[in-house]
Amino acid sequence: MKAAVLREAKKPMQIEDVKISKPGPHEVLIRTVAAGICHSDLHIADGLFPFPLPTVLGHESAGIVEQVGSDVRYVVPGDHVITCLSVFCGHCEHCLTGHMSRCMTDEWARGPKDEPRLSSDKGRLHQFINLSSYAEMLLVSEHNIVKIRKDMPLDKACVIGCGVMTGFGAAIHTAKVEPGSTVAVVGCGGIGLSAINGAAVAGAGRIIAIDMLGSKLNLAKEFGATDVINAKDGDVVAKVRELTGGGVHYSFEAIGMKKTAEDCFSMLRAGGVATIIGMIPIGTNIEIHGPELLQEKKMQGSMMGSNRFRVDMPRLVDFYLADRLKLDLLVSHTIKLNQINEAFDTLRKGEVARQVIKFDA
């Protein structure tokens, strides 16, 4: 099969012939139909976060089951599925208390002495967070997938697998946005727009979108933002406080920067909650003004939208088909696999919401 292989950080990926193993007892072989281009992949490609190389990146995908292992009962060939990096074991404390996204198991991965799932003539390829979606086929644990209805377009379903679930879930699950509350979202890429969408579905009374690009702010209005602030125009925190009469109940950081994370805490009213979704660079410390903690303000992280993905993602599919989840607006471009380096360049410029590779294009 063809796959985009990253052999060295800060170097272009190469489209190579890659070998894929056969499914083990609890594994599923999937024909990839579509895969989203996510900032998390870009962080690895640019060397900002360490990961063993060479690898096939990609973790936001949807496809059709081709083969299943001998012990798989959840899906059969022909089923349509979304992948999720939140592989779960089902028996640890996190899983048993309903926090599947926190599961840290590696029991479903192949060990260093096992035949690798992916390889080339040059040797083993490391599978990226149990998925490696920038490839024509996927070999994954049955605990990495969720079965969905077949009338859902897979080129839209793929973005649910990471970006949409992460942003939407941060609003619904992690922060638990309440009806009538005030919300600010800093960063209007795919994840930020999904957080806005989630806050709107939750019934937030006022949703303030913050970005430096007018085009993204205009798009944010389509997702449910009631107000927009261009960060180029001055003190964002002061503007949020002025708009809301003292600060928001909930803020969301969807960029991954020290300054914006600190701003999200500062723009809260007493008792407010700041949820950091973006990937803050390793070694970065976030500073907050100590006396503000006396106002019962909180800062928290969110892992993949605190998802229970086999429950949540089919519901998000239903939301899309009921025109409540704005995936048609979110997916700004579709590309072919051999255009992946150009897509990463576009992502670096920050001018798009979500790009999707269509493998049958």
List keywords for this structure.
Rossmann fold, 19 strands, 10 helices, alpha/beta, Quinone Oxidoreductase, Chain A, domain 1, 2 domains, 7-stranded mixed sheet, 361 residues
Number of domains as seen in the coordinates: 2
Secondary-structure class = alpha/beta
What composes the largest sheet?
7 strands, mixed
Taken as a percent bin, the fraction of beta residues is: 25-35%
Q: Level of helix content?
A: 25-40%
The CATH level-2 architecture of the largest domain is identified as Alpha-Beta Complex
Q: Which CATH class of the largest domain is shown?
A: Alpha Beta
Q: Segments where pLDDT lies below 50 for 5+ residues?
A: none
Instruction: Give me the CATH superfamily of the largest domain.
Output: Medium-chain alcohol dehydrogenases, catalytic domain
List the topology elements:
Layout: E1 2-6, E2 14-17, E3 19-20, E4 27-37, H1 39-45, E5 55-56, E6 61-68, E7 80-83, H2 93-96, E8 118-120, E9 123-127, E10 137-141, E11 145-148, H3 154-174, E12 182-186, H4 190-202, E13 206-211, H5 214-223, E14 227-230, H6 236-244, E15 248-253, H7 258-266, E16 268-276, E17 298-301, H8 309-321, H9 327-330, E18 331-335, H10 340-349, E19 354-358
Parallel strand pairs: 5-9, 12-13, 12-15, 13-14, 15-16, 16-17, 18-19
Antiparallel strand pairs: 1-2, 1-5, 3-8, 4-6, 4-10, 4-19, 6-7, 7-11, 8-9
Helix pairs in contact: 3-4, 3-8
